Amino acid sequence: MTKRYGNKTAVDGLTFSVHPGRVTGFLGPNGAGKSTTMRAILGLDRLDAGSVTVNGRAYAGLPRPMREVGALLDARAVHPRRTARNHLLCIAQTNAIPARRVDEVLRLVGLESVAGKRAGGFSLGMGQRLGIAVALLGDPKVLLFDEPVNGLDPEGIKWIRELMRGLAAEGRTVLVSSHLMSEMAQTADHLVVIGRGKLIADIGITEFVRQGSNVLVRAEEHELLVPLLTEAGATVHPGADGALIVTGLEPREIGRAALAAGVVLTELTPQRSLEQAYMDLTRDSIEFQASVA
Ligand code: ADP
């Protein structure tokens, strides 16, 4: 999909799929295009090119959208004088969702005791819980959360993480955005990383962690070097054009092993990790630095 605002390309030929039963982290610095993409999934923005489907259909073509996709985009989008329960009842009514589901979701998000209070007086964390209650109202199989932990205290963050993991464990599709690598590393099973509207990586967390410590090695006599590296605790995989991809040893240790074996190394290159790539990318983003500080 591609989405432009005037001459600014917010999302640029982005393609990815999100699968059920796992938490997919949607990672990118501020301004990368995450919200635009989520809005596009919900059919809230007209795309300049491409398309998005949910359960095989465009959002606009879903017969009962709230029962298929739930989303937390902007938790502040609540009528301030309405109580939490009334807010949910209104939405339930317009979407043909039974009223008893309102009490279920209030319980799920832990807002039962303040259900009769005006949402305008809610703290950020309570507002976030109310937004999540709306997302869960139709008991949808697909859930989108845009920066759900922004501004929350550690307890709120832990609660949201556990909720997302629980929803994925029930077999639901969970897409959650964040500009923080560390947050995603703790929550997601899979990562879709974007920068300036473009896809940077679509990768499992395990693979992502492994990628961080690879060294590309070329030597004149692999057959002598490989057993030594393995003995030293490394895992060695064949790379492109006869190279070796070594995991578990620092370049210096690989160099020492080669020296000991009298093998000439022709290349010894630490692979730039995705985390490094992500940091390089975010260095350009003033908002990101401000939020880290
Ligand atoms: P993210 O969610 O990753 O922070 P966004 O999707 O909000 O990124 O924004 C992507 C880019 O598109 C940014 O440069 C942003 O300024 C721009 N943008 C987003 N929404 C609008 C809009 N309604 N009008 C003009 N530019 C927009």
UniProtKB/TrEMBL annotation:
Residues 1-221 form the ABC transporter domain. One of its GO terms (molecular function) is ATP binding. Keywords: ATP-binding, Nucleotide-binding, Transport. The keyword Ion transport does not apply. The keyword ATP-binding applies. Signal peptide: none annotated. PROSITE patterns: ABC_TRANSPORTER_2 (PS50893). InterPro entries: AAA+_ATPase, ABC_transporter-like_ATP-bd, P-loop_NTPase. Belongs to the ABC transporter superfamily. PANTHER family: ABC TRANSPORTER, ATP-BINDING PROTEIN (PTHR43335:SF4). This is ABC-2 type transport system ATP-binding protein. The lineage of its organism: Bacteria, Bacillati, Actinomycetota, Actinomycetes, Streptosporangiales.
